[in-house]
Design brief:
With 287 residues, the protein is of the alpha/beta class. It is built from 11 helices and 13 strands. The chain folds into 2 domains: 2-55, Spermidine synthase, tetramerisation domain (Spermidine Synthase, Chain: A, domain 2); 60-282, 3-Layer(aba) Sandwich (Rossmann fold), CATH 3.40.50. Bound molecules: S-adenosylmethionine. S-adenosylmethionine is lined by residues 52, 54-55, 63, 84-88, 107-110, 113, 140-142, 158-161, 167-168, 171, 193.
């Protein structure tokens, strides 16, 4: 929420980060959420929805590369990719870097976030909205997936947090995870952001346990994102092998073979991210 020249990032239920805004470019309510775009000193331009930083110009690649490339490299030949949410277009940009991709469908509920991103967040989408392989659908991701009659190789959930605005909550529930498993191809892979497990352990645990119920391999990891003020959780769930079964060389080899240039993820970094603390192996419970 913009407060004069400051904007507040809601990190936990009672923990906040104050960011000085040089300039407020957008501050309006859409049908679904409060949308803000502000310019800041350290993070550059920032998109905020309902008081939660979605991504910043300075570090959006930490988040978007971590969300997209682990899942994409895990799949041996990802041709059809579905993105749920992803308003800024940066997830789409990273997906389209893989030369194997023939079709990328992005389903976001909020036309205004997509329109504002198109206008104000050019370095995020970098033309991805206009790529011939792209199809943009403005609809609730849950409704879209429920009536889907085709399968996808990779699904990326780039939604607002499980504890964020009401609109995304149903997409993190067990029934929907079951449906996502159904619409993935045989060696299908799902990737989701999972918010701040330190501050919202029960929401994180519920999602991780649902994924573990349906998928053969589940790989959790987290990445410190400076503009979030916390280490952001990600989970990659696969019907086939997990990330632990891919070598550093195979990860780099697949990125290179598909012409993917990255600023954050490579084989060594991804393998290091998979080295998680003891308590975390048990999904924050049962320890
Ligand atoms: N990095 C992010 C974060 O920290 O939460 C997510 C970024 S992205 C902007 C989130 C997008 O999810 C928004 O554009 C929002 O409109 C979309 N969204 C939320 N609920 C949705 C739903 N039920 N179906 C489709 N899109 C949804």
């Amino acid at each position: 929420m913009a407060l004069g020249t400051y904007t507040i990032q809601n990190i936990g239920r009672s923990t906040y980060m104050l960011i000085k805004a040089k300039n407020i470019l957008v501050s309006k309510r859409s049908r679904y959420q409060w949308i803000e775009v502000v310019d800041t000193e350290e993070f550059g331009r920032v998109l905020i929805l309902d008081g939660l930083v979605q991504s910043s110009e300075a570090d959006e690649f930490y988040y978007h590369e971590s969300l997209v490339h682990p899942a994409m490299v895990l799949h041996p030949d990802p041709r059809k990719v579905l993105i749920l949410g992803g308003g800024e277009g940066a997830t789409l940009r990273e997906v389209l870097k893989h030369s194997t991709v023939e079709k990328a469908v992005m389903v976001d509920i909020d036309e205004e976030v997509v329109g504002i991103s198109r206008e104000y967040l050019g370095s995020w989408h970098s033309g991805a909205f206009d790529d011939p392989r792209t199809r943009i659908v403005i609809e609730d991701g849950k409704t879209f997936v429920e009536r889907l009659d085709e399968e996808f190789d990779v699904i990326v959930m780039d939604l607002t947090d499980p504890y964020g605005p009401e609109i995304a909550r149903a997409l993190y529930k067990e029934d929907f995870v079951r449906r996502l498993h159904e619409v993935l191809t045989e060696s299908g892979v799902l990737s989701t952001q999972a918010g701040a497990s330190f501050f919202y352990p029960s929401e994180y645990r519920e999602l991780r346990e649902s994924l573990e119920r349906f998928f053969r391999s589940v790989d959790p990891f987290s990445v410190w994102v400076p503009s979030f003020g916390y280490s952001c959780n990600f989970i990659v769930a696969s019907k086939g092998p997990g990330l632990g079964e891919l070598s550093e060389g195979e990860i780099d080899g697949r990125l290179k073979a598909r012409g993917v240039r990255t600023k954050f993820i490579n084989g060594k970094v991804l393998k290091a991210l998979l080295a998680i603390p003891e308590f975390y192996k048990y999904g924050l419970s049962g320890y």
